[in-house]
Amino acid sequence: MKYIDEFRAGDLAQQIAAKIASEADPLRHYHFMEFCGGHTHAISRFGIVDLLPANVHMIHGPGCPVCVLPIGRVQNAIQLAQIPGLILCSYGDMLRIPASNGMSLLKAKAHGADIRMIYSSADAVKIAQENPQRQVVFFAIGFETTTPPTAIAIQQAQALGLKNFTVFCNHVLTPSAVSHILQSPEVRAFGLVPLDGFIGPAHVSVVIGSQPYEYFAEEFQKPVVIAGFEPLDVMQAILMLIRQINTGRAEVENEFTRAVLPAGNIKAQALVAEVFELRRTFEWRGLGWVPYSALKIKSRYADFDAEQRFSIPALSIADNKACECSAILRGVKRPQDCKIFGTVCTPENPVGSCMVSAEGACAAHYRYGRLRERNDAVIKEN
Amino acid sequence: MAMCLAIPAFVEQLTAENHAIVNLSGIRKEISLALVEDIAPGDYVIVHVGFALQKLDPLEAERTLAMFAEISCHDQDLS
Ligand code: SF4
Fold first, then answer.
1. Whole-prediction pTM
2. Residues A159 and A85 in one domain
3. Residue B69 in domain
4. A325: Cβ below 6 Å to ligand 1?
5. Domain with B35 in it
6. The complex's ipTM?
7. Cβ–ligand 1 contact at A355 (below 6 Å)
8. A59, A124, A131, B54: least surrounded by Cβ within 10 Å?
9. Residue B53: other Cβ atoms inside 10 A
10. CB < 8 Å to A19, chain B
């Protein structure tokens, strides 16, 4: 398939790996965070870490939308789904997130709640159209990529005059999460998470552009290289980060120029600005309360805001005690540091949110990373 | 389908109400073009949760591929 195969070519991967090996300074360590879950997945799936010298370290960031949603909001959705006659629509991954008391949307569905997995926000509007007698709530989550489709759904519902469609909005913003990490004590004071640079997200940047990252590069003196999702993209971005560090630069560079423009997708941004506004603060799993890091529906569209139509209490629910997701999302720990990783907690039976979606660090490591560790062991034994 | 893992899709035909049929590695799907402009059959788009987010720029793709292959100034050090 065009635009996929060429960006996975093994010989080129070896060439970029050779450049990385020759240009990385053996006297220092490089720590790069890939913010986005899509990159976490690619790094695990294609064994990119195996192609890097031992002094180049990749740290998983919090860019998995399913992973960062706090349990309280999942619990809210489960409660909404209990309202008689209500239909709750959500993207598939959300259904398996464990909430409190071993509950999940999937289990609520098994107990009779009408919860429907949708592929697109447009499906939720359609369900509302087809069920005029019932309340339909779209449990909307995600970063800047999924927000414009939600905005379109709200405008569509308005144009259709739907009285039974609302959105439970949980959309969050990437740049605020990155600054929060850079300002966190783990990075700033304790030095627990050494961070030398970021691989900027692919699709989020398609929407917001490369400009929003200029701030970190300048303010925190950390280079950012926006990368596509294919393995060669990620490798090249790592090489570009190493080159920036070696030459003392902290700039925003774009490796994904085939899809990311400096200003991003202006049409999508305008739609989002029309329908949403900033929340003062929002709770993230792993990061806690992060100021101005999420969106809510503007009062002009209050008729389509589930938080206006239903009473949705603020719930703060702690993670399962054994689960290290919160530390993993901050880059402080790795999946294999969790005591129940791969034993009690598996993708079939996730205990924490990082094991749920393919972009979650634990799920990615479970699927691909363990194999690699085993291979490593074999190589070392020989 | 995982939310964030999308791949480039080939636009096969435009359909009613600003939609298009795309081919995602052999799988055909109808998606919305509401977030993009000037899409024609033959273009490649990045699709996410049923919406095209951007058109892929073929020239930039070529440039990036050329950059992967470019010889590094340190290569002579490799033996
Ligand atoms: S393995 Fe499971 S319990 Fe452990 S940190 Fe990951 S998601 Fe949480």
1. 0.89
2. yes
3. yes
4. yes
5. 7-78
6. 0.85
7. yes
8. A131
9. 24
10. 72, 74-75
